[in-house]
Amino acid sequence: MLKFFFNAAPNPMKIALMLEELGLSFEAVPVDTRKGEQFAPEFLAINPNAKVPALCDGETTVFDSNAILLYLAEREQKFFPTVAQAKERGAALSWLMFIASGIGPFSGQSVHFRHAAPEPKEYALNRYDFEAHRHWTVLEKHLAQNTYMLGEHYSIVDMALWGWARMLPYVLGTGDATWVQYPHIKRVLDLVNARPAAQRAEAFKA
Ligand SMILES: N[C@@H](CCC(=O)N[C@@H](CS)C(=O)NCC(=O)O)C(=O)O
User: Fold this and answer.
1) N or C: which end of the chain has fewer CB within 10 A?
2) Over the stretch 34-64, which tens digit does the pLDDT of each residue have?
3) Of the residues 7, 11, 65, which should be mutated to test ligand 1's pocket, given the most ligand atoms within 8 Å of the CB?
4) Distance (Å, rounded) from C-alpha 152 to C-alpha 146?
C-alpha cells in the first residue's frame, strides 16, 4: 500500500491529483507542518529535507513533488512520454524541471514575502514577485500555443502546474486581475478542475 505524507499546500496537492488520476489506493498520512511534525525523526528518515509531500511504496521512498509525479508516471506507464518518444520526453522533462526549479520556489517566496515576512521587505518582495511573474509569463506564452503543457496530451506537467495555478491570485496578490494577465493559465486550470480526479483531490484536501 502506498503511503502519502501530505498537507494541503500546492506541492502535496499535485500528488493528491495524480493518485486520484491513477485510481490508486493509498494510506494518507497528514503531516502538520505548523506544529513542526516534519522534523520528527521518523519523517526525516523519509524526507531528510523535512518537507511534504513524500511517498513510500514498500521499501521505496520518494520525496520532492515532481520526483514523485515522475515516479508514479513511470510506475504506472501513464501521463508521461516513454523513453522511445525522445522528442516529447525531452520537452516533458524540461517543463517538469522548470516548474520544480522556477515556478515553485519563486511562487513560494512571493507568498512568504507578500503574506508573512516582517518589514522591511520591499526589496525581497519585488525581487521574488518579478521572478514569479517572469516564470508564469513563460508558461502563459507556451500555453497560448498549446492546449496542455505537452500539446494535446494531458500529463504530469499539467498536474504540477495545477498545484500552483489554483493559488495564483493569492501567490501574486493580484486577485481577479490575475486571469486577465494569464488567460491561458486559467484555461488550463479550468480544464484540469473539470476533471473528476481534481474534484476528488480538492475533496481529499478538505
Ligand atoms: N521542492 C519540494 C518543496 C516542498 C515544500 O516546500 N513543501 C512545503 C509545503 S508546499 C512544506 O513542507 N513546508 C513546510 C516547511 O517548510 O517546514 C517539493 O516540490 O516537494
Assistant:
1) C
2) 999 999 999 999 999 999 999 999 999 999 9
3) 11
4) 7
6 CA from centroid of ligand 1 (Å): 10
The domain ranges of the chain are: 2-79, 86-196
pTM of the model: 0.97
Query: 51 CA distance to ligand 1 centroid (A)?
Result: 4
Residue 8 Cβ inside 6 Å of ligand 1? The answer reads no
CATH topology of domain 86-196: Glutathione S-transferase Yfyf (Class Pi); Chain A, domain 2 (1.20.1050)
Q: Which CATH number fits domain 2-79: 3.90.226.10, 3.40.30.10, 1.10.555.10, 2.40.320.10?
A: 3.40.30.10
Q: Is 10 in the pocket of ligand 1 (CB under 6 A)?
A: yes
- Report CA-CA distances (Å) from 77 to 22, 117, 131, 155, 186: 10, 42, 34, 11, 28
Task: State whether the beta carbon of 109 lies less than 6 angstroms from ligand 1.
Answer: no
At position 76, the amino acid (one-letter code) is E
